[in-house]
Design a protein that fits this description.
This protein is of the alpha/beta class and about 425 residues long. Helix content is about 30%, strand content about 15%. α4 links the parallel β6 and β7.
């Protein structure tokens, strides 16, 4: 397949089309080639290029990628597939949802789709896109959005929030409508499904929306990949071979052999460990971590204060009930986020050690192999990991798309 990769990030979705699994190793999938990839964030783009040096990376705002440049890059051969997931922060149900420019980046995906006209496209985003609606904010006479100040009842912190005037259509319905009929000649049959990465060999409960589009002139039947019937992989299965890390430490050497096939696959031929480090904590965070057991979190810790077991000066006054949460060793991990290394994040305290996850552990849980390179400081690295499509899930989707498009090619050859 000839592929264009939009909003590529560090290349989690890319991985599924670039590699296949052979035994307990990832090997290059020579059936697929990439015309180009596009990513705005410079650190993610550098990471992408480090891992896929043979793919042309356009590190620029997608809005500046015009039709002439795209046509020049494509050349004479048609493109089979466009893949990509526009920024998802605006749709996320964690934190404040805002209908902003990022929420409308699907328009850029649509624009490039109308230029390239591939046989298929694959569009990925968070579940929150299903419940997000067009949001129209109140404005003043000059057209500026009007904000109101809100205060957190527990912390007293203030923040500005735009005042909503009214809501429009659901974003997912807009996408389906616009993508199904781009113009009088071009349109796509749309298939939407929520897939959980844990069902496809990833040790993480991570639900994402996948939209597959098939060009209307093609006789293609689409079906999403079936979940695996094997047992789910636990977080301990995924990361127990990685060395222990203390506060302020970074470990670069393995100290034991892999214990199972998942660990063998993740290590492959890696000789060193990167991004396996831990920050330092203050007295309050150390006290929280020390007292929170597997499966517990903020509310459980505060109950210890109510019972007089822990001093009231340590009371947690902000965060959701599953923040400051310790993971459960014999279960898959909860969804990895950009805050995986912060104990106050959504359940990211190591199941055994008194610290949050390291970036490398987060990458392992996402199913990135240990040799996969990330770029930048800690915040850049955790964003690249937390925003990614898990590679093992991407491989399963890629296999399904390859099968479908191979059928189209074989049909065409028989009727020439």
């Amino acid at each position: 397949m000839r592929i264009i990769d939009l909003f590529s990030g560090a290349g989690g979705l890319t991985f599924g089309f670039y590699y296949r699994i052979k035994g307990t190793r990832f090997v290059r999938n020579r059936k697929n080639s990439f015309v180009f990839a596009n990513e705005f964030d410079s650190h993610a783009a550098k990471a992408f290029s480090a891992n896929y040096p043979d793919i042309k990376m356009l590190n620029q705002d997608i809005k500046t990628l015009d039709a002439d440049r795209i046509t020049e890059l494509i050349g004479k051969e048609p493109v089979d597939l466009i893949i990509g997931g526009p920024p998802c922060q605006s749709f996320s149900t964690v934190g404040q949802r805002v209908y902003d420019d990022k929420a409308m980046m699907y328009e850029q995906y649509l624009r490039i789709l109308s230029i390239v006209r591939p046989k298929m496209f694959l569009f990925e985003n968070v579940k929150g896109i299903l419940s997000m609606r067009e949001t129209f904010y109140k404005t003043d006479k000059e057209g500026n959005i009007i904000y109101k100040k809100t205060k957190n009842a527990e912390t007293g912190r203030e923040r500005k929030k735009p005042i909503v005037d009214h809501y429009g259509e659901y974003i997912i319905e807009i996408i389906k409508e616009k993508f199904s009929k781009i113009d009088n000649e071009l349109g796509y049959t749309i298939f939407t499904e929520i897939l959980n990465a844990v069902d496809f060999g990833v040790p993480e409960n991570r639900e994402r929306v996948f939209i597959v589009g098939i060009r209307n002139d093609l006789e293609i039947t689409w079906k999403y990949p079936e979940p695996l019937t094997t047992d789910k992989i636990s977080i301990k299965d995924a990361i127990s071979d990685l060395p222990s890390v203390g506060e302020g430490e970074e470990i670069t050497e393995y100290d034991q052999n892999p214990n199972n096939d998942y660990q063998r696959l993740m290590r492959s031929n890696s000789q060193k460990i990167t991004c396996h480090f831990c920050g330092t904590y203050g007295d309050k965070i150390r006290t929280v971590i020390k007292n929170v057991k597997q499966g517990q979190g903020k509310d459980d810790f505060n109950k210890l204060i109510e019972k007089g077991i822990v001093d009231k000066k340590y009371k947690l006054t902000s965060g959701f009930s599953n923040t400051y949460g310790r993971l459960i060793e014999n279960q898959p991990c909860t969804t990895i986020t950009n805050n995986m290394t912060t104990p106050s994040g959504l359940r990211c305290i190591h199941y055994e050690q008194n610290r949050a996850l390291t970036p490398r552990e987060g990458a392992r849980i996402q199913s990135f192999p240990d040799w996969f390179i990330f770029d930048g400081e800690k915040a850049n690295i955790t964003t690249q990991i937390g925003n990614a499509v898990p590679p093992l899930l991407a491989i399963r989707i890629a296999q399904q798309i390859e099968k479908v498009l191979d059928g189209v090619e074989n049909y065409g050859r028989k009727h020439q």
